[in-house]
Amino acid sequence: MSRMSEDINMSSINDQQKELNEWIRFGLRLGLQSALHPFEYAKVLIQIGYEPVAPRPIRSILGYETMVLPNIFQYVKYIRSCDGYIGCFRGLTPRLIGTVMSTIGSERIARHLGFVAEKDLDYEDDINDSDGYQVARIEEGGAEERERKAFQRKLKRDIIVHTSTILIGQPFQVISIRMMAQFVGRETIYSSFWAAVKEVYRDHGLLGFFSGLIPRLLGDISCLVLASTTAYFINKHFVSEKESRKLVPIFASYIFSTIFYPFHVVSTCMSLTGASLTAGRPPHMPIYSNWRDCWQHLNCTGELKRGSSLFWRYYRTPEVINKNFPMTFAPLPTVTKYK
């Protein structure tokens, strides 16, 4: 009886320690998000097409002259020169609130639907025989089926968590983006969180809090499904080493996040277009009727990849490919001297 009591107490202690570790990791995540916010701030301004610093001429490795825009560090430095150190963290509060709300809410939704977080089951506890060949200690026949079902269940849970995270966090994302976009016109309309809530509702009603939701949802969920499925397929058929199998999902996620990056640009622009801000109206940004309209315009002007490169940002002169979409962006600052 005492043995059973000790086991129960030990299990309770382990559960408490596990929960504590989860909260510590979550706190570190919020801290890292806060520390990196100035770079996210600069990236948002780049995504909406705002370039306050003139491109400068350089000579490329191949020897020809080209123009480059400031990298992400120089952009943050410019923001700091205008608004000071505190100004670099504009829009952080709604981002943190959105992270907390969406993380807690999405986990509760997943649990309510019966998708409890589980440790990844390793069906390939490999050992080496005397000849150096790997021998998998798994039962024949049923192992692949168990692994496939485990993958399907994990993928379903990830889709539910990601979808609910986006749905819960989108209103805070919209508020954060609009707070940061005030930098363009030097406005103070979104001076506080509640003032921002009131302003978004006044401009677009309740639907305004979900501006840019569809492209963000399409991009993130498509990236998740394709990256997870590709990694599972490659690991199943081509990779046998345990350590190598851990790297495949990382590379798959990177590749597909690059492919679906334009959806993030469109989502950011749609979160801002039509707002009562200089950055959300002509000449800085057209007023888009829907996200497909935004996609078509950015595609025609070659701007779907805005902000994808944060270090080497080459400047290309915008060209009008489709007459239905005249250029309405404010011109960049001119270079006084170019040789």
Structural account:
- By secondary structure, the protein is mainly alpha-helical.
- The chain has one domain: Mitochondrial carrier domain (Mitochondrial carrier fold).
- The chain is 60% helix and 5% strand.
- The chain contains 10 helices and 5 strands; from the N terminus they run H-H-E-E-H-H-E-E-H-H-H-H-H-H-E.
- It has helices at 2-35, 37-47, 72-87, 92-112, 142-185, 193-204, 213-237, 242-259, 261-272, 291-300; strands spanning 56-59, 65-69, 126-128, 134-136, 313-314.
- Helix 7 (213-237) runs antiparallel to helix 9.
- Belongs to the mitochondrial carrier (TC 2.A.29) family.
- Keywords: Membrane, Mitochondrion, Mitochondrion outer membrane, Repeat, Transmembrane, Transmembrane helix, Transport.
- Solcar repeats lie at residues 149-237.
- It is a multi-pass membrane protein.
